[in-house]
Amino acid sequence: LVPFDALVEPSGGYVVESQRIVYAPSATSFFLLRTAAKRKSSARGILAVGGVPYQESGSKLGDLPSSRDEALEAAAALPNRSNTLLVGNEATETAFKKSINHGIIHLAVHAIANETSPDRAGFVLLSDPQHGEDGFLYPAEIVQLRLDADLVVLSACDTAVGPIEGEEGISTLARAFLLAGARTVVSTLWTIDDDSTLYLMKVFYAELARGKRAPEALRVAKKSMLQKFGPRKAVPYYWAGLTVEGLAPPPIKQQ
Asked: What does the alpha-carbon distance between residue 111 and residue 241 come to, in Å, rounded to a whole number?
């Protein structure tokens, strides 16, 4: 649960300033991901979810003001006729499950971790009683999605947090997406700040659009924050919580 890129090198700088960090959940996962990565993905475009009206829907959770902008920025950075935006009242669990056939999936929503019962962790979308969906996307549902995504970005709180399960590593929401078929997942180690995450995601997607792979794009975004705000203001809390798991996807091809 320690973000290695926030460790300080003998030179005094952060590891992120000189190294790319990619995590493998376990040796088994690493082997399976390398095997799966040889597939040629048929999925295209980005599915971006954000701006869920939590308060309007009667949820006890607060709105995430920057999450709508995150979704819009992600889609705008990687224009594609196959892009799908689920923002506002369109961000239902039903719509998400129907729209998963994309090369990139970006979720800017609330997530709830559970460090004792990982099967009860989940993402909070809008409910759709007509189709039997309660709005909570649980790990058991995620692993059945059969994804063909090169990259899933979980821009939500605590998506890389969970109980340690022996040789298989940590049981997290991020791992559920890897088990579902995603080849690389960006997830979070703690409760992330809305505004700083928007800044990071803008730079991250701009770098993906320039042909960078996800680990390098995220590294550039973190370095950009350090350079813009300085190490005294841009403390690790604002950027080090975002981690990359799995395998680095190939550079994005513009359509």
From this structure: 14
CB-side neighbour CA atoms (13 Å) of 159? 34
pLDDT of residue 24: 87
User: Whole-model pTM above 0.90?
Assistant: yes
Q: Considering the chain, what is the average pLDDT of its residues?
A: 92
SS3 percent helix, strand, coil of the chain, rounded to 5, is: 40, 15, 45
Assigned token pair, 53: 């009206």
CB 185 within 8 A of CB 214: no
Question: Could you report the per-residue pLDDT of 142-171, keeping only the tens digit for each?
Answer: 999 989 899 999 999 999 999 988 887 889
Give CA–CA dist 28/12, Å, rounded. 35
Cα–Cα distance between 74 and 6 in angstroms, integer? 25
The residues, ordered by sequence, that sit 6+ positions from 51 with a Cβ below 8 Å of its Cβ are 64, 67, 68, 71, 87, 88, 91, 108
Asked if residues 48 and 79 have their Cβ atoms less than 8 Å apart, the reply is no
Q: Residue written as tokens 């992600």?
A: 74
pLDDT exceeds cutoff 80 at 77:
yes
- Tens of pLDDT along 190-229? 999 999 999 999 999 999 999 999 999 999 999 999 999 9
Q: Which residues share a beta bridge with 80?
A: none
Q: Is the dihedral angle over the CA atoms 232, 236, 237, 242 positive or is it negative? A: positive
Q: Taking a C-beta distance cutoff of 8 angstroms, is the pair 173, 154 a contact?
A: yes
Positive/negative CA dihedral, 66, 68, 73, 74: positive
154 φ, ψ (degrees, to nearest 5)? -100, 85
Q: How far apart are CA 149 and CA 177, in angstroms?
A: 9
